[in-house]
Amino acid sequence: MSETDALRIFKLRNSILEYSWGSKTFISHLQGRDEASLEPQAELWMGAHPIAPSRIKINSSEKSLLEIINDDPYKMLGKKIADKFNNRLPFLFKVLAAASPLSIQAHPSKTQAVKGFKLENKKNIPLNSPERTYKDDNHKPELICALTNFDAMCGFQPIKEIVERIKYLQLEDQIPGIKELETDPCTRNLKRMFLELMSKHNDNQTKMVSILINKLVEFEPRDDHEAIIFRWMTRLAAIYPTDMGVFSPLFLNVVKLKPGEALFIEAGVLHSYLNGCGVEIMVNSDNVLRGGLTPKKVDLPELVKILNFDHIGLKKVEPKIGNNENIYQTSAKEFQLSKIVIRDDESFVNMNFSSAEIILCTEGKGSIKWSQFSLELKSGESIFIPFAISEYSIEGSMELFRAVVPTH
């Protein structure tokens, strides 16, 4: 790579991943296409993940962002970041477009991931095997920021609320362990109840889902929030009539986000994105342990090992408000997300803050200028800014999301 190429800001060509739960319209419309896609488009990936790294046009050829970083990690990432994260961009940035629910799932801690990855390697389970649980040795905290109204489940409700709602629906005979949980409301009993409930198989599952739906018809919701919980259980039962994950809104927090609101998901927090579109940033890992609402592998004993059953998993992130940049601060060392809004009479100026960055435009158009160069940017497009470029300005009328590696 020449010196000129090394000091460029790169426009990214990103992969779109098609999953059955994706939207046929959101990503297409974000990128300025009026027509719907033929297949559901679930995620647009921006970054250097080996499965689907972003690509960059250089002169008449193309390279992946992974290759460009490997060519000169100090210039692309900065020495401190390169040394700390083994010459890798430590985050993966996504647009997520969910037209139907994702699986209920959780991600391991770093210690759990190292142990699980090592054990599965010892068993010689291929990395691409559907029987594989740990794809790498990394943790995967993540932040989702809503672009549309967004529904999610995140973290366990307080035990007393779980018990009270199950009793209101008169499901004590169907849900094992509820009497013990009422008598002794501790996380140990919640864990036992959750494992027994989710482990039901075959005819038991169909029968219990049918009983639940009959109860939802029989008992009226007592407030607006309970109406949302009942509505989601009814909808999940229509999609997964034999899956015990249908019961999950009874014990997980059901959350509605408005555009600009965000959730931070830490290790061990059981969650599911139900409906809506957003930008998501996470550690560059593929470790997902599923518990239900999916045809994919479910490993309940391993999932239960990593879960946090305390009711502190729900973490809404209020942004730190700046002049034209609102920063979503979390405990993650690998990433930081911010939202930048500029209008025609404004500009965003970055000076003396050096980090590997990806910026996504979600609305409007404009340009980014650095040194004697400039690059046009419009809705649906994204750019990679190397560490070596610390001074640039953005002008136009745009809404942008900025992913950086925090320096603190």
Portion in strands: 25-35%
Average of pLDDT: 93
CATH class of the largest domain: Mainly Beta
Low-confidence stretches: 1-6
Name given to the CATH architecture of the largest domain: Sandwich
Into which percent range does the helicity of residues fall? 25-40%
How does the helix and strand content classify structurally?
alpha+beta
Say which CATH homologous superfamily of the largest domain is assigned. Answer: Jelly Rolls
Characterization of this structure:
By secondary structure, the protein is an alpha+beta fold. The chain folds into three domains: 15-152 and 257-317, Jelly Rolls; 165-247, Phosphomannose Isomerase, domain 2; 325-404, Jelly Rolls (Sandwich), CATH 2.60.120. The chain is 26% helix and 30% strand. The chain has twelve helices and 21 strands. The chain has helices spanning 3-6, 26-30, 65-71, 73-77, 79-84, 110-122, 159-168, 178-183, 187-198, 203-218, 224-239, 300-306; strands at 10-11, 15-17, 43-46, 55-58, 61-64, 91-98, 104-106, 142-146, 150-156, 252-257, 262-265, 271-283, 289-292, 316-317, 325-328, 336-342, 347-350, 357-370, 373-378, 382-385, 392-404. The strands form four sheets. Strands 2, 3, 6, 8, 9, 10, 11, 12 and 14 form a nine-stranded antiparallel β-sheet that branches. The longest helix is centred in the middle third of the chain and has 16 residues, at 203-218. The two termini are 31 Å apart. 45% of the residues are buried.
